[in-house]
Design a protein that fits this description.
The structure holds three protein chains of three kinds. A five-stranded mixed β-sheet of chain A has the order 2-1-5-3-4, with helices on one face. In chain A, helix 2 packs across helix 3 (about 100-110). By secondary structure, chain A is α+β, with helices and mostly antiparallel strands. Chain A has six helices and five strands. Chain A folds into two domains: about 1-75, Beta-grasp domain (Ubiquitin-like (UB roll)), CATH 3.10.20; about 75-150, DNA polymerase, domain 1 (Orthogonal Bundle). Chain B folds into four domains: about 15-25 and about 465-610, 2-Layer Sandwich (Aldehyde Oxidoreductase, domain 4), CATH 3.30.365; about 30-135 and about 200-290, Alpha-Beta Complex (Aldehyde Oxidoreductase, domain 3); about 135-200 and about 300-415, 2-Layer Sandwich (Aldehyde Oxidoreductase, domain 4); about 420-465 and about 615-760, 2-Layer Sandwich (Aldehyde Oxidoreductase, domain 4). Chain B is built from 19 helices and 29 strands. In chain B, helix 10 (about 375-395) runs parallel beside helix 18 (about 730-740) and helix 14 packs parallel to helix 15. The longest helix of chain B has 28 residues, at about 535-565. Chain B is globular. Chain C is of the alpha+beta class. Chain C has three domains: about 5-45, Uridine Diphospho-n-acetylenolpyruvylglucosamine Reductase, domain 2; about 55-160, Uridine Diphospho-n-acetylenolpyruvylglucosamine Reductase, domain 3, CATH 3.30.465; about 165-255, CO dehydrogenase flavoprotein, C-terminal domain (Enolase-like, domain 1). Chain C has helices at about 15-20, 30-35, 70-75, 75-80, 85-90, 95-100, 105-110, 115-125, 140-145, 215-225, 235-255; strands at about 5-10, 25-30, 40-45, 55, 60-65, 125-130, 135-140, 150-160, 165-170, 175-185, 190-195, 200-205. In chain C, the strands form three sheets. In chain C, strands 4-5-8-6-7 form a five-stranded antiparallel β-sheet. A four-stranded antiparallel β-sheet of chain C has the order 9-10-11-12, sandwiched between helices. The longest helix of chain C has 23 residues, at about 235-255. Classes of the chains: A alpha+beta, B alpha+beta, C alpha+beta. The interface between A and C is medium-sized, with 29 and 27 residues.
Chain lengths: ~160, ~750, ~260
């Protein structure tokens, strides 16, 4: 079937099989930042934004993306680099395989939440598993990133 | 060489950080050619069976199928998939495909085709007639069982590890020092208990994967997510029965390893497809396959007897380990050794020790190498037993360790007689005690709401590389404009060794980090390195870097002398220039680099190998605080404090993340991650839905500090950090729960139900 | 992973219903659970174009569209005001935000899964399901029905004045529940729903006066259910957990009463 959607700001017309997942479609379209870690919707590696909402692309039908606005890390390189620099400053990207999914969800969280208490942040990001970092460094990076405006004023 | 630390001991960002956080295509599957054949494996539904007949005719006719391979199509020479130095201690007990199935998930056939759909379809059309055999699933009954897992005559053990396939033994052995039984009989207090740990999965986020193709020279090129690039070359040569010279192995960025990728789990499948078809071929393991047919931790049951005199001074310790290597013997003979060698030497006081072990084959999934490599299991047992002994004596669990712990300068009879040249274990304990406010909280505090908080403690050690065996090599080249290329054979698996080794080089060469270009591992290009395992990278490869830099400096001085027409011994090199202090004559490194590109007979390259006669242990103290619900047995981890002595921290941030990450894995092992089988031998925790990795809500608060010693045989005083960090959570958390619940669970993971049963009965 | 030939985004409930009468068809909701099943179907029928993704609040009830996500339940102001903390508590442990942005209320309820937090929670409330052909029936009755090829359109939760609290025990914070309990209270009566036993949630209704104390009352409630064993825990332990959690929910509700 034919679908039409916006991928990272560009209008795409694409032929997709009826049961293709968005994950497969995105990798097919060269969005290699999107990773698969589990196939059972537990790991968060395949997180992308669909109409601004963080979704697991591994369980999202490509057919349903018709008419939608899809954003992967490829489409938010500036933001990725900005948050990513906080992550790297902690050494918390480690192998980097889960970083794209985490970053997409951090960006969704930044937009959705109106305050960033530690427990709220942890709960929001609980669906993003990481096996390297033990999460503490990621959390330090997220906290520093979210309060970066405050620091800027001090300087 | 006496150089100042400028980059070493600073937290520079990893060289690959930007590519990783912006999601650049740097991993195996991102790089695979688009026209790769898709390779999948048909897996056995039976724990133990013989293939009577396998019919692949229909499968081969599916449109887009390039080949379907069975046991009739593979070389008949047995090999091991264990990434170890040759001759491997692991037995040669594998073929790529075989007519005997030894666990649920064992490989029955290989299918390769143009698309995943075609391959899936073909897999469904293969008809296998199995003769189902009785499986051996209980590792306690495996030794001398009437059913043999490896009855075949071609089974071979290359090293004297006590293996005997006619007894289901992958290894057995032991050692004894002093009169253990006599001393234990005289002890005022003796604890004798049995502890059980499970076959935890490393569960790195990137599953096993590899692709292969033939290059312009007709050689097999293998791009693999591996920790052991050079071992992959050798193992593929063995498995395919072709010369090593016909194989090249390249490691791109890899999405975590933790030891899983020290076994060549997936590489043989695309390799044989490429050899048979001449086509590029790739395999991407599903998470399901990574759970059921991979290389997890060895399940172990460990019996500990330990005794003390009336003052709490340890007299003797006796450890017997039964290890379950599963269907194949990868890392079986070696992991078990660490269960004794990395636990017993933590204590200086025992006048006698005994360590014995059996490693048995069963029809469970084959085990492999997982961070800690047997030490983790041994330390859970021994540290738990020490805690139980303290309870029996009635002394504080920190106190018993202060009285007995190993100290700098000690000779360690249970650790190959090595002398301990660096050890801050005592300082680690003192600092952890402060951080946890141990004296205020020990052993437990009733919160008054049906919940009790308990604290627990454990110590750990590991090694730094395999002494007298592991080899690390690096090559260093000076290029035009004066930048260096550092070629390493160690595999950066996300931990950052490409960066930390460059930090060592940059201090040795007195240059900026950016002046060092690091080339990842490629067996055609990189110098030989046994690989990134056994906590060897910084300690061993780091020293090779130090050596190579020394040689490079010498060669730069030679060139400087030539170009300045001065005597070499009147010159100095300060990183930027070669100069003569007496005259002020000088030539910049940039000019040397550029000049050497013309009319030059001497290449400005240096290479060095390093091996170490000792394996200096890093040390660590872990303390856990948990809250136990007295009605339900549910235990919540509140706080985990860890203080580490890894010698000098080359990159403190990366060392901290290693520690936090290893602790989180250890917390998973202690509380959540279980592996169980049905009575038919099917593994139940076959997905992340059922195998529960800790999320960020499950690890409590993790606090890490360093108490550095200085290891004279390591680069800038460094020891290892990678593995030791997983060892303390299990015993410390088990003890904290025991202190809160008033009864102890001796089998991991410590679930609420197990705690509840112990409290109730 | 599920495979199918045709994807049909239904334009009306009638169309969806007709398509779904074939055994080879299946309704796709959030696709979270469906996706991980190894099934092969002809047709997947998608309800996402039918405007069933909202929560409507009236004076009498909450009307929840079948395609409303668990995340919407979690953060809906009206629901959280009327049932303080309840929907947050029964959704927050379900895998992660991304998962809850996909999983739907309709999928959770129609599937009548043993592990369902949502079913457990809603069963303790005065909840009805609206079926395309079957009309509006109490959720409890729906739970007892065999699976058929009707379509769940909406879920209706009456504002009947019940106060309700939810609790679950999990091996990790985002795992399936080992036991899930929801208790709601009116003046005289407790509605106790227990799921993940590991069978699907069931309801028992008991009067406060049936036992002398809350502990005894909880034991009475727990006795009503059957418990089984799976890899997460034994039936015996699940029963014990039920007694403890139901007692605690009773006590918390009583505290709220003051």
């Amino acid at each position: 079937m034919q679908i039409e959607f916006t991928l990272n700001g560009r209008l795409i017309y694409e032929e997709t099989s009826d049961d293709e997942t968005l994950f497969h479609l995105l990798r097919r379209k060269g969005c290699y930042s999107v990773k698969c870690g589990c196939e059972t919707e537990n790991c968060g590696l395949c997180t992308v934004l669909v109409n601004g909402v963080s979704r697991l692309s591994c369980s999202y039908l490509a057919a349903r993306a018709d008419d939608c606005d899809v954003v992967t890390l490829e489409g938010v390189q500036k933001e990725a680099e900005e948050f990513g620099s906080f992550l790297a400053a902690e050494g918390a990207e480690q192998c980097g395989f889960c970083s794209p999914g985490l970053i997409m969800n951090v960006l969704a969280m930044e937009k959705e939440l109106d305050s960033y208490e530690k427990e709220k942040v942890k709960e929001y990001l609980a669906g993003n598993l990481c096996r390297c970092s033990g999460y503490m460094g990621q959390l330090r990076a997220v906290e520093k990133y979210l309060s970066r405006g405050e620091n800027r004023n001090e300087c | 060489m006496n150089v100042k630390m400028r980059t070493v001991n600073t937290s520079v960002k990893k060289k690959d950080a930007k590519a990783l956080v912006t999601g650049k295509p740097v991993f195996t599957d991102d790089l695979a050619p688009g026209d790769c054949l898709i390779v999948k494996v048909l897996r056995s539904p039976h724990a133990h069976a013989l293939i009577r007949q396998i019919d692949t005719d229909k499968a081969k006719k599916v449109d887009g199928i390039a080949c379907v391979l069975t046991y009739q199509d593979v070389p008949g020479k047995r090999f091991t998939m264990a990434g170890q130095s040759y001759p491997e201690p692991s037995p040669y007990d594998r073929l790529i495909l075989e007519d005997r199935m030894r666990f649920v998930g064992d490989a029955a056939a290989i299918v390769a085709g143009e698309t995943e759909e075609a391959v899936d379809h073909a897999l469904r059309l293969i008809k296998v007639d199995y003769e189902v055999l009785e499986p051996v699933l209980d590792f306690r009954k495996a030794k001398d069982h009437k059913v043999l897992i490896h009855p075949e005559d071609s089974w071979e053990s290359l090293c004297p590890v006590g293996a005997d396939n006619h007894r289901n033994l992958c290894a057995c052995g032991g050692e004894e020092h002093g009169d253990v039984d006599g001393l234990l009989n005289q002890c005022d207090y003796v604890v004798e208990q049995v502890y059980h740990t499970k076959a935890n999965q490393q569960a790195m986020m990137e599953t096993f994967r590899a692709y292969s193709y033939l290059d312009a020279y007709g050689r097999l090129n293998m791009v693999a997510s591996t920790q052991v690039t050079f071992h992959v070359r050798r193992i593929l040569a063995h498995a395919l029965d072709i010369p090593k010279s016909r194989i090249r192995v390249i490691k791109p960025r890899i999405g975590g390893g933790f030891g899983a990728k020290q076994t060549v789990v997936a590489e043989v499948y695309p390799a044989i497809v490429t050899m048979k078809t001449g086509r590029a071929a790739k395999i991407i393991y599903s998470r399901y396959e990574s759970q059921i047919a991979s290389s997890p931790r060895h399940e172990m049951e460990i019996k500990v007897r330990v005794g003390a005199d009336k003052n709490g001074i340890l007299q003797a310790i006796d450890v017997y380990t039964l290890s379950n290597t599963g269907a194949y013997g990868e890392h079986g003979p070696t992991t078990v050794g660490l269960s004794g060698h990395k636990s017993i030497p933590l204590y200086r006081t025992p006048r006698a020790f005994r360590f014995a072990y059996d490693v048995v084959y069963t029809n469970c999934m084959s085990a492999g190498a997982y961070r800690g490599y047997g030490a983790t299991q041994g330390l859970f047992a021994v540290e738990s037993a020490i805690n139980e002994l303290a309870e029996k004596i009635g002394i504080d669990k920190v106190k018993i360790r202060e009285l007995n712990m190993v100290r700098e300068g000690d000779i360690m009879p249970a650790y190959y007689g090595e002398t301990l040249k660096s050890c801050a274990l005592d300082r680690c304990m003192a600092r952890a005690k402060e951080m946890m406010e141990w004296d205020k909280k020990y052993p437990s505090v009733d919160m008054g709401n049906g919940k009790v908080r308990g604290v627990g403690v454990a110590m750990a050690m590991q090694g730094s590389a395999i002494s007298g065996l592991d080899v690390a090599s690096v090559e260093l080249r000076l290029n035009d404009d004066g930048f260096y290329t550092l070629m390493i054979g160690a595999s950066d698996m996300g931990t950052g060794c490409d960066t930390t080794l460059a930090q060592v080089a940059s201090d040795c060469l007195e240059c900026d980090l950016d002046q060092i270009v690091v080339h990842g591992t490629d067996t055609d290009v990189s110098p030989y390195d046994s690989g990134s395992y056994a906590s060897s990278t910084m300690y061993l490869t780091g020293m090779a870097v130090v050596k190579a830099c020394g040689e490079m400096r010498d060669k730069i001085l030679d060139k400087g002398a030539e170009y300045l027409s001065c005597e070499k011994d009147t010159l100095e090199f300060d990183g930027n220039r070669v100069w003569q202090p007496t005259s002020g004559l000088e030539i910049s490194l940039k000019d040397i680099g550029n000049k050497a590109m013309c009319s030059n007979n001497k290449m400005l390259s240096a290479g060095a190998s390093h091996t170490s006669p000792v394996s200096p242990p890093p040390f660590m103290v872990g303390m856990a605080e948990v809250e136990v619900d007295q009605e339900t047995g549910e235990a919540e981890l509140i706080d985990f404090v860890a203080v580490v002595d890894c010698g000098t921290t080359i990159n403190p941030n990366l060392a901290r993340i290693q520690t936090e990450g290893g602790l989180a894995q250890g917390i998973g092992m202690a509380l959540y991650e279980d592996i169980t089988y049905t009575d038919k031998g099917q593994m139940i925790q076959n997905s992340f839905m059922q195998y529960k990795l800790p999320s960020r809500l499950d690890v409590g608060n993790i606090r890490v500090e360093f108490e550095s010693s200085y290891e004279p045989t390591g680069p800038f005083g460094a020891k290892s950090i990678g593995e030791i960090v997983i060892n303390t959570p299990s015993p410390a958390i088990a003890d904290a729960i025991a202190n809160a619940a008033g009864s102890r669970v001796r089998e991991l993971p410590i679930t609420a139900e197990k705690v509840y049963r112990e409290m109730k009965f | 992973m599920i495979k199918f030939k045709n994807y049909v985004k239904a334009e009306s409930l009638e169309e969806a219903y007709n398509l779904n009468q074939k055994k080879s068809s299946v309704i796709g909701a959030g696709m979270m659970w469906l996706k991980v099943q190894s099934r092969i179907k002809m047709t997947l029928v998608d309800l996402s174009g039918l405007g069933l993704d909202g929560i409507e609040e009236t004076d009498e009830e909450f009307v929840i569209g079948a395609m409303c996500t668990l995340r919407q339940l979690e953060i809906h102001e009206g629901l959280n005001e009327y049932f303080p903390g309840l929907f947050k508590e029964c959704t927050r442990s379900i895998v992660g935000v991304q998962f809850r942005n996909g999983a739907t209320a309709g999928g959770s309820i129609f599937g009548r899964f043993g592990f369902s937090d949502i079913l457990t929670c809603m069963l303790a409330l005065d909840t009805y399901v609206e079926l395309y052909k079957g009309g509006i029936i109490p959720l409890e009755e729906f739970c007892r029905q065999k699976f058929n090829r009707d379509i769940l359109v909406r879920i209706r939760i009456k504002k009947d004045g019940r106060r309700a609290l939810y609790a679950s025990s999990r091996m990790t914070k985002t795992d399936f529940p080992l036991i899930a309990c929801c208790v709601s209270a009116t003046d005289e009566t407790y509605y106790v729903s227990v799921g993940a036993r590991p069978g699907k949630a069931e309801l028992t209704v008991i009067k406060r006066k049936e036992a002398s104390g809350l502990k005894e009352l909880a034991e009475l409630a727990a006795d009503h259910f059957h418990y089984g064993t799976n890899q997460r825990g034994s039936g015996e332990y699940r029963k014990h957990l039920t007694e403890v959690y139901v007692k605690r929910l009773f006590m918390a509700l009583e505290r709220e009463e003051g």
